[in-house]
Design goal:
alpha+beta; 2-methylcitrate dehydratase PrpD; 60s Ribosomal Protein L30, Chain: A; 2 domains; 6% strand
C-alpha cells in the first residue's frame, strides 16, 4: 500500500474510538450514568467478596506472585503484580455467576473493567473523576462493539466477555492513564489480539468460564502497558480484512460503532442480576417463583412449558435438562433454575447446591423450552419469559413477565454490606461504600482497592463459608 493509498483510507474504528474515549469527561456523564457506575462497582465488589472462598477464586490467588507493593486481591491479605491481581479479582467477581449483564452484547463488561481500574488505580493517585470516566468508556466500548459484533450464532461458539473484555478493559485503562490517541488505538488493537474464550464449558460444566474475565483483565493491562511503552497496534484491527470482525464473525460489523451517541450511555442498559445464575435463566426463574406461590403440592406438577426468546434457548448450556454433575451446569440450565424455583419456592445460591435432589430433577425432566415470537422480537431490549405449569387433575397455572426484574439498588447495597462485612468488617465495608459514593470528588480512587484487603492473619475462608451457610 502506498502512502497515498493509506492517506485515502477512512479513519479506522479503533482510532475513532480512541479519539472519543480521550474526549470523555466526568461532566459529560449524566447523574444517572454516574450513579449507575457506582452501583455496578458495589455489585462487582459484593460478588468478589462473597466468592472469595470458592475454588476458582482460591486457584486464581494461588498462582499470583506475592509482592510487598502491588495491587490488592479483594477479600484477601495478598498484594500481587497489577495484572495478576486483576486476574484474581475478575475471576472472583465472576465466581457466583451474578455479575452485571449487558444483554445487547451478551457480555459482562463490569467483571473485566472494574478489576482493571482497581488494579491500575493503586499504581499512583488517580482522581475519582478519571476513574468514573474510564469506567464509562469501558462499558461504552464493550457495549457498542458487542452490539455490532455478536449474534446468536457467534455466541454459541465464542464467549462475548472473552472477546470484548480485553478491548473494553484496554479502553478503560487507556482513559484512566490518559494515554495519547495513538497509544489508546494501539492498546485497543493489542487487546483485540488477546480476544478469546471458547464456549465448550457449558456442555461440560467445567471451570473455563470463571477465568475468561481474568484472562481479559490481565490482557487489557498488558495491552495498556505495551502501548504506553511504545508498542504499535494495527490501526484497522476491528474492521480489516483479517481483523476482529472477519476473524470471528466472518462478516463486517453490523452497525457503526460510536461512543455515547446522542449522549446515551451503554452502562444504563446494564442490569444487575438478582440471582446467581445465567442471564438467560433469570426471567424464567422469576416467573417460576411466582407460579410456585400458587402451587400447594409440588408433587402434583405434571408438565412445564417455558416460553423464551430464541437467543435464550440457543445459548450454550441453557437448554439442558441434566444430569448435573457440577453447579455451573445447573446455573446455566433454564430447566434446573425453573425446577428449583418451583420446588423450593426460592431463587438463591442454595438452589445450586442440590444437584441430586430428586424432586428438582423430576421437575426439570418435565420442562420443555419453546420459542416465543414476541419475546424474540423484543430481545435484547427486553428479556421476557413465561412459565406454564400443568398440574395433576388438569389445572394450569402460568405467569408471563415481559422483562427481567433486576436487583434493586437497596438489594445490591445490602448484599455488598453483608459480603464485605464478613471479610473486612462492617466498619471497613461502610468506608468502602462511602468512598464509592463520593468518587466524583475523590482525589485518590485507589484507596477503594486498598480498603478491600482482608486483615493479615484473618480467616477469610471461614468468613466466606459462614456467609454461604
Amino acid at each position: 500500500m502506498t502512502m497515498q493509498d493509506a492517506a485515502a483510507r477512512p479513519l479506522s474504528i479503533s482510532r475513532t474510538l480512541a479519539l472519543q474515549a480521550r474526549a470523555t469527561r466526568l461532566d459529560d456523564l449524566s447523574a444517572a450514568t454516574r450513579d449507575k457506575l457506582k452501583v455496578c462497582l458495589l455489585d462487582f465488589l459484593s460478588c468478589a467478596f462473597e466468592a472469595a472462598d470458592l475454588p476458582w477464586s482460591r486457584e486464581a490467588v494461588a498462582v499470583a506472585p506475592r509482592t510487598s507493593e502491588g495491587a490488592t486481591i479483594i477479600g484477601t491479605p495478598v498484594t500481587a503484580p497489577t495484572g495478576d491481581a486483576a486476574f484474581a479479582n475478575a475471576t472472583a467477581g465472576h465466581g457466583l455467576v451474578r455479575e452485571d449483564m449487558h444483554a445487547a452484547s451478551i457480555g459482562h463488561h463490569g467483571v473485566v473493567i472494574w478489576p482493571v481500574l482497581l488494579a491500575l488505580s493503586q499504581r499512583a493517585p488517580i482522581s475519582g473523576a478519571a476513574f468514573l470516566s474510564a469506567a464509562a468508556v469501558g462499558y461504552e466500548v464493550g457495549g457498542r462493539l458487542g452490539r455490532a459484533l455478536f449474534n446468536a450464532d457467534l455466541a454459541r461458539l465464542f464467549r462475548p466477555t472473552g472477546l470484548l473484555g480485553p478491548i473494553a478493559g484496554a479502553a478503560a485503562g487507556s482513559r484512566l492513564l490518559d494515554l495519547s490517541e495513538s497509544q489508546t488505538m494501539s492498546a485497543l488493537a493489542l487487546g483485540a489480539n488477546a480476544s478469546g474464550g471458547l464456549n465448550q464449558w457449558p456442555h461440560e460444566g467445567s471451570s473455563d468460564m470463571y477465568f475468561h474475565p481474568g484472562f481479559a483483565a490481565r490482557a487489557a493491562i498488558l495491552a495498556v502497558d505495551l502501548a504506553r511503552a511504545g508498542a504499535v497496534g494495527s490501526d484497522y484491527i476491528l474492521e480489516g480484512e483479517a481483523g476482529l470482525a472477519m476473524a470471528f464473525r466472518r462478516a463486517a460489523l453490523s452497525q457503526p460503532v460510536t461512543l455515547f451517541p446522542r449522549g446515551q450511555a451503554e452502562v444504563l442498559a446494564v442490569y444487575n442480576k438478582p440471582a446467581p445464575a445465567c442471564n438467560f435463566a433469570q426471567t424464567a426463574t422469576q416467573a417460576a417463583l411466582r407460579v410456585a406461590q400458587q402451587i400447594d403440592r409440588r408433587e402434583t406438577i405434571r408438565e412445564v412449558t417455558v416460553l423464551l426468546p430464541d437467543a435464550a434457548i440457543r445459548y450454550p448450556g441453557c437448554d439442558f435438562a441434566g444430569p448435573y454433575e457440577r453447579a455451573l451446569q445447573a446455573k446455566m440450565s433454564i430447566q434446573y433454575g425453573v425446577a428449583a424455583a418451583l420446588v423450593r419456592k426460592a431463587v438463591e445460591e442454595d438452589n445450586y447446591r442440590r444437584l441430586d435432589e430428586p424432586e428438582i430433577l423430576r421437575v426439570a425432566s418435565l420442562i420443555r423450552l419453546e420459542r416465543d415470537g414476541e419475546f424474540t422480537a423484543r430481545f435484547p431490549a427486553a428479556q421476557g419469559a413465561e412459565v406454564v405449569v400443568q398440574l395433576a387433575g388438569g389445572a394450569t397455572i402460568s405467569r408471563r413477565l415481559v422483562d427481567v426484574i433486576p436487583a434493586t439498588e437497596s438489594e445490591i447495597r445490602q448484599r455488598f454490606r453483608v459480603a464485605a462485612g464478613a471479610l473486612v468488617g462492617a466498619e471497613r465495608a461502610e468506608e468502602i461504600e462511602e468512598r464509592v459514593d463520593g468518587l466524583d470528588e475523590a482525589p485518590d480512587a485507589g484507596r477503594i482497592a486498598t480498603l478491600c484487603a482482608a486483615p493479615v492473619g484473618g480467616a477469610p475462608r471461614a468468613a466466606a463459608t459462614a456467609l454461604h451457610a
